[in-house]
Each structure stands twice: as C-alpha cells, then as structure tokens.
C-alpha cells in the first residue's frame, strides 16, 4: 500500500531549501533506492529499518483477504494515514468504513485527493516550507543524492500516530521565524492562504509582531531611521484614512445594507436602480450646466421680467419662462457680443458678421451638447448593460453559492455592533433566498390543469391589454380636448391668465391617476393567476406596467410633436419649445405628488387599517414592478425634456432624492418582506435593459426627430432663424469653409457623416450588435461552465464506478480462491 514518507523537519539541512515530500516527486517514490544506498554506505541500522518497513509493505500488498479484526484494523488505520503530515492526530479514513479490500484501499490511498494532509501540524509544516521557498527563491535546491546518509531526513517515526507537542511547537517557532523574515505583503498573503482558523492565524501573526518588536527594541536605531519609520507609519495611516473617507462618501451604503438584510435582493434592486438614475442625472446636469446653462447665465440676454406668483412651482410657467430653465431663453448668437435686437434678422446678421471673432457659438454648443450627452449616456448604458449581463447570467448553482455564503462570506474587519447586526441580517436573508431556490419544486401538472392555467393567463392578459388600450384612447381624446380648449382660450381674451395656467395641470393629473390606479388592477389580475414563483410574478408585473407607461408616453409625444409644434400659433404660443418644457416639468411634478399619495394611502393607511381594524399583523409587500416602472417613466420624461429644458435634470435629481428617503422610510415602517423569499439575481440587468431599450431609445428617437424634422420657433431659442435645429451644424460649417477654404474637408465630413442618417442607423446597429454578441458570449460561457460542472460530476461518478468494479473483481477472486481451496480440501 503506497504511503508518504514523514520527514524530520527538525534537521538543520531542511532549512537549506528542502520542501515537503509532496514537492520531491521522482526522488522518494520508492524505498528500494534508499535501502540500496544505505547498504552500500554501511548504514546498517537504517537499512535494517527500511528492509523491515519494505517487507511489511510487501506482506500487506500480498494480502488478498478482507481486513477484519482489531489487529488488521489497527494496521489499516496506520497505512491509510497520511504520513506527510508532521503533527496532529490521525483520523481514520472515512472510506475504510465500507469494508473495502486492500487492493482497493491501495488505489484509493494513491489518489491525489487522499494524499494531502490536512491536520494542523501538516499545515504548519507545509507553510513553513513555503516561507523557506520564498526566502530562498533564487537559490538552487540541492538533490537528496548530494547529502550524506546521516544528513537525510529520518523516517524512524514512520507509522506513528502523530507528532509530539514539542515537535509542533518547534515547527511553529520556525514558521514564525520564516514569516518574520518575509516582506509584509508576502507575509500577509501567506497567512491568508493558511487553512487554519482565524484564532490560530491571529496567534501566529501576534507572535511574528512580538518578535519584530523585540528585535526593533534591541536594536538602537539612528534618528534618521526612526524619523523614516514614523513617516512611513504616518503615511500609511493617512492613506488608509483617505480610503475609508472615500468609501464613506458613497451615498446610502448603510441604508442599502439594512434594506437588503430585512427585505432581500428584490427590494434592494429597486433602491440600487434609483441610485443609478441619480448618477445618470448628475452626469447629464454637469454636461448641460457646463456647456449651456453657465455660459448663458454669465451673458444673459435682455428680457422682460414678470413677478413671481407662486403658481410657477406647480405649472413651471410665469416667471420661470424668462430664466435659463427653458429653451427660449438661450441666444442664437455668439455670447460675448450682446444682441441689441432679439429679432431674427438682426441676430442672423450678428451670427454671420461675428464669425471671425466668435468665442462661443451658442446654437452650435446647444446642438452638440445635447447630442453628445445622449451619445455618452447611451455608451454608459450599453456598457452597464453588458457588464450586468455577465454578472447576473453567470452560472452559479444555488448549492455552490450557499456553500460560499455559509463558510466564506463574513467580513472579519467589521467590528461595530450595528454593522455586525446588519451584516448578519443580510447574510441570513440571502441564505433564506438560496434555500428557497433550492427547495423550489417544479411539479408536473396534468393536461387539464395546464389548459386551465393557460386560459386564466389568457384572460388576465386580455384584461390588461384592454384596460391599457382604453386608457391610451382616453388620454388621446382628452389631450385633443385640451388642445381645442387652448385654441378657444386664445380667441377669448377675457380668460384669467392664472386660470389658464391652472388648466394646464389637468392632463398631467389624468395621466398620473391612470398610472396610479391601473397597476393596482394589474396586481389584482396577477393574484388571480396564482404564480408559484414570486420572481415570475414580478417579471410579469414589470411587463404589464411597462406596456402602460410606454403607451402613455407615446400618446403624449404625439400630442406635443404632432399637435402643439405645428400649430403653436393657433393656441397663442410664441415659443412651443418652452410650452413642451413646461409640460414635462408639470408631468414630473405630478408624478412626484402621486408617488407621495401612493406611499401615504397605499402603504401607510393600509398598514394602519390592517393593524387597527382587521387586527392582523400582516403588512403590505413592497410593489417592485410598479415602483421601478415609475422611476423609468420619470427618467424618460427627464430625457425627453433636456432638449426643451436644460435644467430639468436638476428637478429630476431633487425628485429622486426625496423619493429615496420617502420610500426608504415607508419600506422600513409600513412594509414586510415577501412571504416566499426569492433571489432577484437578474432584476438589475432587466432594469438597466428597460432603461436602455424602451426609455433612452424612445427619448433619443423623439429628440432626433425634433432636431431633424420639426421647424423651431421663429421668435425664441438658439435655432430661431433656421429651418431645423440640425441646420446649425451645417450653417457653422459653411461659415468655416467661407472664412478658411482649407477646412472644406470638415464641411464634407459633416455632410457625409452627420447629415446623412445612414450613419446614425449604422451607429445604432453597431450598439445592438455589440449587445447581441456580448449576450452570445455570456451564453456560451454559461454553457461551457455548465458542461464543465457536468464533467466534474461525471468524473466523480466514474471514480465511484471504478471503485465498485475493483471491489467486485476482488470479491470474484476471493470467491474463486475459496472455491479452489474447498476443492483441494475435498480432494
């Protein structure tokens, strides 16, 4: 039976670079070579010992009988022990309890997975040798043939139950010495890699630090060395403090951990998505603020001001119309020169005559700032989407994640009581989600049950589609009614201006009411369907709410760009872009107000009614689908309005901050965790995808159509003298070519690459291709990982099959031997 040799690590030559026996392949794989060398050199005692040991092994290898009895059990326990381990107590091999034959046990003991010692003494010895290897990496390791027989490792302790306590202490001391001589980075890496308990690692580290302190205290350092030492320590503490400060700057970390611990990853995904939207709007405001708002605020045009009435906070009109908040305030000339006349002809001549000395062309800046903001946002979204694809759709079976979460997810740097409690709740909730996924059973239903379920799903989707279509038709006709009412009010001069502005809130109110009530109908229909998986119910609700929100936005975009823009003079408007910007401001404001109402009546009052009236402890469950689609709806409004109101991202940022704290407080006080925990591993990816494909793509199409096809207002804005907003770039290229003919290449490039819509479709196609290929790569990786996992499982089955075959062959030989002996005895 193959065994590993136990080297005496106390020999001084082992510190010259010899590794453990596992690293001496091809040198100590046979006892015969050592026996011959000891015999030739006269080492009689060692040779006798080796001959006796080899004879024991040969005798055991010829033994074909099953191991039984206490004597055989003792010898089998000694043979199966891993004698590479230099300390610790040997444990009996668990596979020996199956009664395998000696031939099978010899094969099992030679397997790589069964020849690695895992007791504490072996671990310390192994890492002691590793530290020696790190210290003498450049030194060549001498062969064992180069040493005299007396200096070779002794195997006199072969077959002993374990090392003594003194040997283990000496090995620990040598390990401490070796670690003390290593650099700090190697020392930390070595300690982290040791498969010991945290207490033992901490003890070894303390011993190393104490020895270093003793060495430093015995040495008398010079003043320069002490100053250098203190400077290094101060710099390191300052760096760690700076890193901790940067980590503390990340907003809402503690709140997010608390939500994750109490409500799971589903509710956490909502708040993470809200945090992502805040960063997108901050980026959008930085771009528009730096290139549009700030230059125009420094050089304001002459405008008549109106008094502030307070109604502007609701309608966005009034005195707000004469600020940098809206499109009409921005000039159509070079900013350092002020225009004396706000008319179109004078401004056009100013734009042409000042072309040689311009410093900041506002029409060009407005066009390219909006275009580049959408382009960069699209790149960031595509990158985020591809990154989340690879992160969430990666193959991670629940049992493997459960093992990692159970044994290796605790952060031992967390020492505060509150942080420890939050982390323990977080880990507990994640374990519940993983266990729920593991215990989820997919029962096979009969044909009648499947048919009834399909019928229920069909009826539910019919109700949802019919209600969405009806609401969309209602909003369409109501918007038409509002447009006709504006035309009549323009003809009737007796209408109060404040009342006229107040009527503008009717359309946002109707749309917000629909967005509030119809998702409740979707939830009621979803409860009728009785989905077994909570994640499936959430995804279906997201699809239905998305259908509602996008249909509402489609009708509104048609109202603004199809009715208001072509006929803005018939309703008494001088700048239809300002009107559309005000409408989007009103929609954002009403969406925020109805979010507050939903939090108050849908969560707080329902909890009080359930506790006080119904006498039940049940609380409402946080509706992830509706709240996420509300965020996407509001962000789409912000992207649509950035062309008409460059300051609208600020309004969206304030709204998101307030929504975060309101929803966080409501979730903590009024909601409870789902009855069935589930792991929302792919929700973040779905949210980012919905934000990119329907939301940003739809807003980009509307903004592009506005710039390419719709004629701007003739009395306001930076494009007032142009047929379309897109002509600003072409007009600037013509001026450049006229002033400097050598720049005609830029004009041609603008004509072929910017004006030609083919390249816009090519760019969009490239983005879609990138997304498609990345999804295919991720899918291929998932399949490869799945195949590798199946291969590992099949290899384990192969090992079991080979072991069983060996056992059956041994039993056949044993039965044949017994049959021959019985025949001989009868003869």
Automatic annotation (TrEMBL):
A Pfam match: TMC
Membrane topology note: Multi-pass membrane protein
Q: Where is this region: Disordered?
A: 55-102, 138-162
Q: What InterPro entries is this protein classified in? A: TMC (IPR038900), TMC_dom (IPR012496)
* Membrane-spanning segments: 267-294, 364-384, 454-478, 504-525, 546-565, 585-606, 627-647, 653-671, 683-708, 758-775
Keyword field: Membrane, Transmembrane, Transmembrane helix
Q: What is this protein called?
A: Transmembrane channel-like protein
Please name the GO terms that the record assigns under molecular function. Answer: mechanosensitive monoatomic ion channel activity
Which residue ranges does the record assign to the TMC domain? 575-681
Q: Where in the cell does this protein reside?
A: Membrane
Q: Name one GO cellular component term.
A: plasma membrane
Record keywords: Membrane included?
yes
Per the record, the major location class is membrane
What family is reported? Belongs to the TMC family.
